[in-house]
Amino acid sequence: MTNNLKLKIIFKHIKLILVVCFLMSALTIDINAKNFQPIGTVNPSKYIPAQKQIAESKNGMVTTQHFLATKVGEKILNQGGNAYDAAIAVGFTLAVVLPRAGNIGGGGFMVMHDSVTNQNYSIDYREMAPAKSFTKMYLNEDDSFNDKKLSTFGYLASGVPGTVAGFWEVHKKFGSLDWELLLEDAIYYAENGFEITPYMGDMLSKYKEKLSYFEPTNKIFMKHNPNFIGSKLVQKDLANTLKLIAAKGKDGFYEGEVAQKIAHEMQKNGGLITENDLKNYTPKWRKPLISDYRDNKIITMGPPSSGGVHIIQMLNILENYDLKQIGHNTTDYINLLAEVMKYAYADRSKHLGDPDFFDVPILEITNKKYAKSIKNKIKIGESTPSSKIMPGLFEDNESFETTHFSVADKYGNVVSSTYTLNSTFGSGVTIKGTGILMNNEMDDFSAAPGIPNQFGLLGAKANEIQPFKRPLSSMSPTIVMRDNQLFFTTGSPGGSRIITAVLQSILNIIDFDMNLEEANKSKRIHHQWQPDILQIEFSLNDATREKLRGLNYNVEVIDPATCIQTIMYKNNMYYGYGDFRRPDAFASGDIYD
Ligand code: GLY
Question: Is it the case that residue 335 has pLDDT exceeding 60?
């Protein structure tokens, strides 16, 4: 080839690159300047209290714990975005409109079914322990537990957040719309504010003490105290942080101005997170756990969430029974469920932790033979005290406030994601100048054997604190397929109760043929082995309660704490239902438009 020809080819390529760059920037400018149409003022009274009927749609479905986030997801789907795009937009919007749990200062898990590859995926964007953390960081010098709420409140309670990196990773792999477009609505609501609903107003009142302790948090969330309801919550600093993330991708959070502010505030106030911790944070693609239950395929999250492992374990035990014949929420049914739950949570206490640090015996716990061996120990009509139930023995190991959203699109992609700040409003700390409310996820580690976390959960070596480790979770985003297509997707907030709530939503639909409204409204029960208490949602009938007491259960009637967001697919239609237990929850679809 002559030099002349070479030059011509190079020139041609440069021209092509320049044209492509120009087109891309034109496209970007066009998208940015364009017709951004906020969903704008939505009259909350149209959407609350809670879902009144099952939502239907042919073109995909979004269910979240706040109707504004649901509408944003719906808008993205209507713009031709796929379920991944909508889920990311929903996640960012929840960080603004549901500050008790929605977040960019926390982390979570996402389970996905991709229609193009017909494959299932899951990503772990759980928080990580900072490099300077150590096993005994919440213990006194004599190894006794330092009960100063250090793992739940304040700067020392936070793990390195994973949400932004997780969303960025999903966007790179599956996104179809421009990243910036996915943040526009969140930025709009942070900058211009949105109306505080009665439910949110009640929450702000209830958590007044926590929200007024640290000045940057107080300034934002207590501004309208005591007249929260109907006031506008404006979060200008958060809007600026979201703008940086929109412009720079994940680096807008993990590097530069925002990262510096997080590290600076942490250092000033006794926290551990450094700029290096933020820079080095990585979400992880992990193999989802897949199992069968009757004729359905269960696709769910593996460790460091314990949710999927124990849902599969409990389903494996329960498939040995004809549950319909036993009868929904009868004494026998609750008796059976409670016993099954105890065995699962006993295993959780010993064997579950971050698989990057501890050899979690997933195959053993989810083995159908192991399930049979547990089944053989259970007798309906009797209860075994938790003190007599020990975690299973496997040879090869030793080495509350959350929110769920589900999206399905018309292309067949499904996203089920649960993310969290841990407690309601996380650690109570907002990083000055950023609007970022931080998680208190360090409490999900086991501070020491025998020391329960805020959910009363016990842990052991598998879940001890180590630098860069992820704390064990109960979050259980789950997709159920039947005949190789979506049957339903489900998930919930609720700390330790997530696993049992998701289990019961699966049983309600599969074993009891309930529609989404029935599945949602039926009362849930919970037992987590330790403490040895059978929790029953309010208003389960008195006779059943007394019969359970007769079986020696220590029955406690509780307020509802979970909030299932389910999407079902049937006869080419999507159905959605937002759990009434959290009144702002809402499924998209055309019923209110
Ligand atoms: N922070 C609650 C959970 O991850 O289970």
Answer: yes
